[in-house]
Write a structure and sequence with these properties.
Length: 240
């Protein structure tokens, strides 16, 4: 799921990665909206809000939206740098630093008191946007830009195009590729919504501690990947 890159990746790997990280993004999104009244998984809307505040000459508010945009960008930069650094050291663990950092950020925000969150909404939102920048860059790098998990606008656009293409591309290989791509996009959308629904119910009870579920999902993914890798190695050793 995390370990396979390039030609070694299959649809199955991407489906697992998409379901895991889309659910995380959904939980982070709903927690950010409920606690901070801000989008914390993408920056598309923040560009519009930034421009609107500039037009209204509300420069202090505009500065906050600019920080949101830069936090997401910085998260992507850090993730990309960590991936490149690990590629030169140990390709098997290339995903570990960005995922580990994302887990720490989510746990750190989850453990903040409500008073701290209310007093520092911009800083908390920036932390979550940085985490989602990390995740988006990580999943983009690992999957060769096939999987994106933090926003849905492009996914729905691509999904609509591919559904239409099913009517015009009739060769078996073309049909199979389109169906695989549609299946992947539907998986991302479905698990994003599942994350939102689960996060919404849990937020009513646990507030920002709901983010601990997102961190637990990431940790479970790391454990699964490690255990599966060791099992595969043992099988290969046994066969040899």
């Amino acid at each position: 799921m995390f370990r396979h890159r390039g030609k070694h990746r299959t649809l199955k790997h991407n489906l697992k990665l998409a379901s895991l990280l889309s659910a995380v993004a959904g939980i982070v999104n709903v927690a950010g909206v409920f606690a901070l009244h801000q989008l914390t998984t993408n920056v598309t809307g923040h560009f519009s809000f930034f421009a609107d505040e500039i037009a209204r000459r509300n420069f202090e508010s505009a500065w906050g939206y600019l920080l949101f945009i830069l936090a997401f960008l910085f998260g992507a930069v850090v993730s990309g740098a960590l991936l490149e650094a690990m590629l030169r050291r140990d390709k098997r663990l290339v995903y570990l630093p960005p995922v580990g950092l994302e887990v720490l950020l989510l746990v750190g925000v989850a453990l903040l008191s409500q008073e701290v969150i209310r007093a520092n909404p911009v800083a908390v939102a920036c932390s979550l946007l940085f985490a989602m920048g990390l995740q988006n860059a990580l999943v983009t790098g690992i999957s060769n830009a096939v999987v994106r998990t933090t926003h849905l606008t492009g996914l729905f656009t691509d999904l609509g195009i591919e559904i239409a293409q099913l009517l015009f591309y009739h060769k078996p290989e073309q049909q199979q590729n389109l169906k695989n791509s549609i299946r992947l996009r539907l998986t991302i959308i479905s698990f994003f919504f599942l994350g939102i629904i689960a996060g919404g119910f849990l937020y009513a009870i646990y507030a920002m501690k709901t983010l601990l579920l997102a961190a637990a999902i990431l940790i479970a993914g790391l454990v699964y990947d490690t255990v599966k890798y060791k099992v595969v190695r043992l099988k290969r050793k046994y066969r040899a």
